Amino acid sequence: MKTIKCGLVGYGPAFRMGRHHADAINSTAGMATVAVCDVSPERLEVAQEELPGVATYTKLDDMLAESDLDLAVIITPHNTHADLAVACMNAGRHVVVEKPMCVSVQQAKAMLQAAQANSVMLSVYHNRRWDGDYMTIRRVVEEGLVGEVFEVDCYMGNWTPPDGTWRSDKQISGGAFFDWGAHLLDWVLQLVDRPILDVTGFFHKRVWMQMTNEDQVRAIIRFEGNVQADVTISSIARARRSKWRILGDRGSIELPHGAEALTVATELGGLETRMQMPFLPPARERYYQNIADHLLRRAELVCKPEQAALAIAVMEAAERSARSGKPQKLGL
Fold first, then answer.
1. Handedness of CA 319, 320, 323, 324 (dihedral sign)
2. Smallest Cα–Cα separation from 123: which of 237, 290, 250, 266?
3. What is the pLDDT of residues 148-199, one digit of tens each?
4. 61 and 97 together in one domain
5. Rounded Cα distance, 90 and 122, in Å
6. Which of 67, 157, 226, 248 is the residue whose CA sits 20 to 30 A from 297?
7. What's this model's pTM, rounded to 2 decimal places?
8. How does pLDDT run across 83-141, given as a tens digit for each residue?
9. DSSP string of 44-96, one letter each residue
10. Same domain (yes/no): 275, 184
11. Cα 285 to chain center, whole Å?
């Protein structure tokens, strides 16, 4: 069976994401990490120690020219994703990009166009779709236990000073929405499969003036069919809301932060019922399993690039709305 040869672009120390991707790839049947590219010779030394036999490069052009890799995995600061991904796709390589996809709708469009023009796969690493709590929420909704969903509230917040890295620098990171917010928006947009009418944003810069990311960002998304979603990321919240609060016309789902089960309220057999539903086991390894299945066996790609681009468009519309004080249409 053919092996998909993978090259990592970036092997930085932040959360050891280079090693994370290498381990995930190497534990997936039909895939192997064969090359690493990083501008830092010190990081490449670490890669060689952790991944014996891997080829190393300090320039992307050299890796693309000298190696026979099939797939490039972009694990670099957010504002570099688009240019690196397009370069790899123009060299005929399939591409996986760490979230977020990029930092603007213009970049997202360029990436989609490059994938189509070169007939290669493009996917964004939304492995959190296989978190146990989220898979359980999806199951409850798909089974119809809460009926038709009409309101979704997804929240992540606490009182947290910025870490002082590039992730807190808006010019590099894209802003507060572009880290965990990318996961939250992806979750919500997969739950609510409806056209988006407009987005209203509320952005705050009040406390952590030493860094340029916003302190709190919020997007109110209005979908067709009188359905709304509220997605908030905050680093200035001493009081927290639930991570999830979902309302349907038959019931509700709530998940406070730190809880180990969903609270599902519904009606069964004419009787009102409230139950604690334990999470399904997490299965994040399925991301790369699906990539292998897609490239080797033509399975449907789960994390499609158009879905990731939609999340970028929501973030951008929310920021435009926060500046203008008016709801904004998507720019995608």
1. negative
2. 290
3. 999 999 999 999 998 889 999 999 999 999 999 999 999 999 999 999 999 9
4. yes
5. 12
6. 67
7. 0.95
8. 999 999 999 999 999 999 999 999 999 999 999 999 999 999 999 999 999 999 999 99
9. HHHHHHHSTT-EEES-HHHHHHH---SEEEE-S-GGGHHHHHHHHHHTT-EEE
10. yes
11. 15
